[in-house]
Amino acid sequence: MKKDFLLLLISLVITSACSNQKDRQVTVTLSSPSRIVGIGKITPRGGVSELASPASGIVTKVCAKPGDTVKEGDLLLLLDMTDEMLSVKESDTRIISQQNAVGSAAAALEHERISLVEKLRLLTDARELLEAGAATGEDVRKLQNEYDKGCELLKKMENDYREQQAQLKEITIQRSSRIKDLARTRFQAPFDGILLDITPRAGEALSLYETYGRIAPDAPLIVMAEIDELYARDLALGMHCTINLPGDSAVTALGEILHISPYLKRKSLFSDSGNELEDRRIREIEVSLHSMRKDLLIDTKVECTVHLN
Question: Tell me: domain 35-47+219-307, CATH 2.40.30.170, correct?
């Protein structure tokens, strides 16, 4: 009896607890963030360009140094151009020789044309004399044979003249190519900007397409920042941003979003290794800079706070 009472009491307690649990409602309110922070770096708009060697050879002179302001076409460095200059001189000699050959072929062709006209006149006269009985058929046949041979020779000489002209054109094209090879030994600035780095020294060898320097375009500085994919859809053009150095709460610059990448990509700005196993993706943004500290340098790492509201 006592045991049955105890079981009934436990049952009532459990039923009461379950009833209270059902009646209780838990409400969780998720608030939207008012700002998001991404890591970025200072860079000129359009990005920094790596300079690739357009030719291979030995550096003879470095004409600029890091930090120099350069204009498009300014000389940066020179390669040894001995072989290229010899090639151009060889082409010049061949062109002169071939021009003489073309001239000789043209003169010979003109002479044969005049000769053929004379042969045709003699043949025509002989035919008229044959009709008048003042010439023999043998005379006509001999003149006809000479005229036919003259026609064949004229065709051959016309072909020879065209061939000489084609050779002259080919040599001229080769010279143009060698002139371009010579020009490639003079490395020039591709646009106005600041030379950030130039690595070769006089006497060193450069390979074709080897990177030999970096140049920043003459363009306004911006922040290229990466925003975690969790907030990728919260971004919009024109949103205000504050820029500060990592670990420093002082505002370094102000700005607003100029461009938003249309896709997600892997983190790239400050990855320590290309083999990092990272599942997160980011959305890249470009942020204008104003009210900026004067001592900010290209490639400076910064924190970019985007104000959503």
Answer: yes
